[in-house]
TrEMBL record:
Lineage of the organism: Bacteria, Bacillati, Actinomycetota, Actinomycetes, Kitasatosporales
Stored CDD domains: RNR_II_dimer
Domain Ribonucleotide reductase large subunit C-terminal residue range list: 83-396, 403-548
GO molecular function: ribonucleoside-diphosphate reductase activity, thioredoxin disulfide as acceptor
EC supergroup of this enzyme: oxidoreductase
Keyword Membrane attached: no
Pfam families associated with the record: Ribonuc_red_lgC
Entry keywords, A to Z: Cobalamin, Cobalt, Disulfide bond, DNA synthesis, Nucleotide-binding, Oxidoreductase
Biological role stated in the UniProt entry: Catalyzes the reduction of ribonucleotides to deoxyribonucleotides. May function to provide a pool of deoxyribonucleotide precursors for DNA repair during oxygen limitation and/or for immediate growth after restoration of oxygen.
Basic and acidic residues compositional bias, start-end: 560-571
Protein name: Vitamin B12-dependent ribonucleotide reductase
Entry similarity comment: Belongs to the ribonucleoside diphosphate reductase class-2 family.
Length: 582
């Protein structure tokens, strides 16, 4: 456990002297508050509350599971807003947009992220009621307003808000939206994604045109080659990392409430939580590296299942302990009781088991881990339903057995909590042998692959400083280590894009919500590599995907500091799938 990160980012200040709470005080505050929720559902006495408080504390103290920063920071305080993410609706009416802006500010003030589907907003130039205006300014113009609000609110606290804006590929302003990160300014507080369906993807493959439809009146405003939009999406993703894609048919095929509440249209800022309007979700992740058996031969499966059960209970309690910023959010959170139970430390577990990230053995491990977590999570939700009742919308879900939650599992980026746990983030591979993370201090935090350093010390007799110097100056392939020792040390930009996508798709098989993972591409990759990654994600059933080409933004959050960080020379572009030569 990295107590320095925990206290620097998430501890509260106590009393008039503004003393920073200790690690023990933080863990006690969180576990005791969530344990008290037990009294709401049955005649739980002090002993039972202490029992669950102790179990919740053990999850964190033993570094097996960490709830999100929102839960760690806000539980047991006057603020008490514990959700990490929200989706807020936008309707094609001036006042409603500003209502959403107000609610977004309240969410951002407590560190929550917000997602918006801009598709209902009328296109640029469409008629509006103001007689002296030339016409509507279009959905892209509203991005500036929400981006500015997020910046202003962030200046009042230590947690920066974040947003996702999505737009249907059939919207008349789709090209302007796809170009937004290049033409509107950097939009530092926004990720953007294009919402595409299977019909559009087939139109790209078959080189057909699609119709653009006005949300104002449902009339067709034009026809455009699907490949033209696709090429622009891929070019911009190559240049800036945006837009990503949301595969709406895949999202709603797995949505148990689609028949009752309609389709889900967008997600939270990082794409792992598919949410209805006014829906919120809390997050937390299991540190898979903590379940490595002592002999490094397998996983402690029983301990993993026990951890899942306790983590589900903790997150369900957090729904009741949370004070949401808007009554409609409270209603949706408690009606669906959607959780976001994820994993982190996956790459660490692979390395310590001797399994390369881009291998069939890794896919088999995902199958075992994913099935174990899924089954234990739903068993826990069934038990909670027997104790407390099913979630109110359960009768419409098609699930035969009452459960407490509409969805449980997700895979989030785990930026802060993976630093606290001292493990690799989410399901990402390790980034580099030596790297810098641009957080906490002006110069960021320097990191090194301690497992690789240990192997160098073991096989070459080097001290730690000399081993670290070697990592800084030699490519991994040239290190003085046997091939079988080097095999599991696979880093982000050395892994082919197709394996990044396969990893997302394999985890998605066992994940109720969605999977947030970046497909890291080398600086010298071609636009066609982006296209290939997006298409592979669609074919394999992913719910969404984002790509990031090294160095394509003004400042990278993660920066490799070893010999292999030099960009590769640009390669000749391959042909995009279903699109003519670039």
């Amino acid at each position: 456990m990295n107590t320095e990160v925990l206290r620097a980012k998430l501890a509260r200040r106590i009393g008039e002297e503004r003393r920073v709470e200790s690690t023990d005080e933080l863990l006690d505050r969180v576990s005791a508050t969530l344990g008290e929720v037990e009294r709401r559902y049955r005649d739980a006495g002090d002993a039972e509350v202490r029992h669950w408080s102790a179990r919740f504390r053990a999850l964190m103290e033993e570094n097996r599971f960490w709830p999100s920063g929102r839960i760690l920071n806000n539980t047991g305080t006057r603020q008490a807003q514990l959700a990490s993410c929200f989706v807020l609706p936008l309707s094609d009416e001036f006042g409603s947009v500003f209502d959403a802006l107000k609610i977004a500010a309240a969410c951002h003030r407590t560190g929550g992220g917000t997602g918006f589907d801009l598709s209902p907003l009328r296109e640029r130039g469409a008629p509006i009621s103001t007689a002296e205006a030339a016409g509507a300014s279009g959905p892209v113009s509203w991005l500036r307003l929400f981006d500015a609000e997020t910046t202003v609110v962030a200046q009042g606290g230590k947690m920066r808000g974040a947003n996702l804006g999505s737009l249907s590929v059939y919207h008349p302003d789709i090209m302007e939206f796809v170009d937004a990160k290049r033409t509107v300014g950097r939009l530092h507080n926004f990720n953007i994604s294009v919402a595409v369906d299977d019909a559009f993807m087939r139109a790209v493959e078959e080189q057909r045109k699609i119709e653009l439809v006005s949300p104002l009146n449902g009339q067709v405003t034009g026809r455009i080659a699907a490949g033209e939009i696709w090429q622009r999406i891929c070019e911009n993703a190559w240049r800036t990392g945006d837009p990503g894609l949301l595969f709406t048919d895949a999202i709603n095929r797995a949505n148990p409430l689609a028949g009752h509440l309609g389709p889900i249209r967008t997600t939270n800022p990082c794409g792992e939580q598919t949410l209805y309007p006014y829906e919120a979700s809390n997050l937390g992740s299991i540190n898979l590296a903590a379940f490595l058996r002592a002999d490094r031969g397998d996983v402690e499966w029983d301990l993993l299942r026990d951890t899942v059960r306790d983590a589900v209970r903790l997150l369900d309690n957090a729904i009741d302990a949370s004070r949401y910023p808007e009554p409609r959010i409270t209603e949706m959170a408690q009606s669906n009781r959607r959780l976001g139970l994820g994993v982190m430390g996956y790459a660490d577990l692979l390395v310590r088991l001797g399994i390369p990230y881009d291998s069939d053995a890794a896919m088999e491990l995902i199958d075992r881990l994913g099935a174990a977590i899924r089954d234990a999570a739903w068993a826990a939700s069934e038990e909670l339903a027997q104790e407390r009742g099913a979630y109110p919308h359960w009768p419409h879900s098609g699930r035969p057995v009452p459960v407490r939650n509409c969805a449980i599992t997700t895979i989030a980026p785990t930026g802060t909590i993976s630093m606290i746990a001292g493990c690799s983030s989410g399901i990402e591979p390790r980034f580099a042998p030596v790297w810098n993370k641009d957080v906490l201090t002006v110069d960021g935090i320097a990191n090194a692959d301690e497992d690789l350093i240990d192997e160098l010390k073991r096989h070459s007799g080097l001290g730690r400083d000399d081993a670290l110097a070697l990592l800084r100056n030699k490519p991994v392939a040239e290190l003085p280590l046997p091939a079988h020792v080097l095999a599991p040390f696979r880093y982000a930009h050395a892994i082919p894009g197709t394996w990044h996508v396969r990893t997302v798709a394999r985890w998605q098989r066992y994940t109720d919500n969605a999977v947030s993972k970046t497909v890291n591409l080398s600086h010298g990759c071609a636009v066609a590599d982006v296209s290939e990654s997006f298409f592979e994600a669609w074919r394999l059933g992913c719910k969404g995907l984002s790509v990031y080409r090294e160095g394509s933004r003004d400042r990278d959050l993660l920066t490799a500091t070893h010999a292999e960080s030099e960009p590769e020379p640009p390669r000749q572009s391959k042909q995009l799938v279903g699109v003519g030569d670039l």
